[in-house]
Amino acid sequence: MSRLGVGRLSVHMKLSRRQFIAGLAGVATAACAVPAYARWIEPRWLSIDRVTIPFFSATAPHPLRVLHLSDFHLSRVVPLTLIERAVRVGIAGQPDLAVITGDLITKELHQHNAYVRVLRELTDRMPVYAVLGNHDGGRWARARGGYPDTHAVRGLFAHSGIHLLHNASVPVRHGDRTLWLIGVGDLWADEMDAEQAFRDAPGTASTGRILLAHNPDSKDALGDRNWELMLSGHTHGGQVALPFLGTPMAPVRDHRYVSGLNRWRDRWIYTTRGVGNLHGIRFNCRPEISLLELTEATRS
Ligand SMILES: [Fe+2]
C-alpha cells in the first residue's frame, strides 16, 4: 500500500511538473506575444469608426460626411505607407470633406515630396482643412528637439493643397446652407488665439459651427465661444488601454475626453485615437480613421 501510495505520489509529481513546465511555457509565450502584438500588429491594424452625430439644429437636406484624420506622426516608427493606407480607406468612405487635427510629424519632416503625394490623394477628391498639433513645431516642440517653428508643416500643407485654419475660420457650403469651420492653434504650443479664430464666425445660431482643436483640453479655454462640435486628436486614445486602469498614458488633464464621442455641456466633442503613435506601441487601442455623419438633431 505504501508503495502504491508512493507510486501514485510519483505519478502525481510528474504530472505536476509537466503542468508546471507547460504553464511556464504559456507564460513565456504570452510574455513574448503581447509585446510583439503591441509593437508589430496593433499599431498598423487600422480601424474604421463610423459615428453619427446629431448636429444640425435646422433641417438638413442630407447628412454631412466628414472624414476626421489626426496624429499621423510620420517618424521612424510610423511609416508613410500606414498614412497612405489611412488616406485611401478614408477616401473609400466617400466623405464630403476631410479634416486633419494636427501632429503630422513627430519630430522632423522626412520624405516631404512623398508625403505631399499621399496628401494630394485627399485634396484631389475633397476639400481638406487642418490645424497644427504640439509636435508640428513651435515652443513645445523646440524644447523637445523638434522644429522651433511650424514652417515645415505649413509648407507640407501648402504643397498638398490643405487649408490651414490657424486661429481662423471658413464658411463651407452644405446643400443650400453654410456651416463654419473654426480652427485654433495648439494649446501646449501656446498658439491658441480664440479672439482671432472666432472673429469672422457667426456668433448667433447658424447652420452649425465645427471647431478644430488638436488637444481636447482646449475646450475649457473656448467654452465661452460659439460652437456645437469640437473635433480633436492628441491623445492617441491613450495608446495603451488596460483593464481596470483605463488609459493612464493619455496626455490630457480631463480623461473623460480621451476618445470617442462625448457630451460637454450642451455640445459634442469627438476625439479620435488617430492614425500614428509615439514609440511604436499600441495595445487595446487601434489606430482610427473616423467617418463622421453629421445629421439633423431631433428635438424632443
Ligand atoms: Fe499626437
The unique ligands bound to this protein are:
fe (ii) ion
Beta strand %: 15-25%
Q: Which ranges are low-confidence, i.e. pLDDT below 50, for 5 or more consecutive residues?
A: 1-7
CATH superfamily placement of the largest domain: Metallo-dependent phosphatases
Biggest sheet descriptor = 6 strands, mixed
Order of strands, main sheet, comes to: 1-12-2-3-4-5
Summarize the structure in words:
The termini are far apart. Residues 1-7 have low confidence and may be disordered. Strand 3, helix 3 and strand 4 (128-131) form a beta-alpha-beta unit. This protein has six helices and twelve strands. The protein has two domains: 1-44; 48-296, Purple Acid Phosphatase, chain A, domain 2 (4-Layer Sandwich). It is α/β, with parallel strands linked by helices and 300 residues long. The strands form two sheets. Strands 1-12-2-3-4-5 form a six-stranded mixed β-sheet. The protein has a six-stranded mixed β-sheet with strand order 6-7-8-9-11-10, with no helix packed on it. Helix 2 runs parallel beside helix 3 (112-123) and helix 3 (112-123) packs across helix 5 (151-160). Fe (ii) ion binds at residues 71, 73, 103, 133, 135, 234, 236.
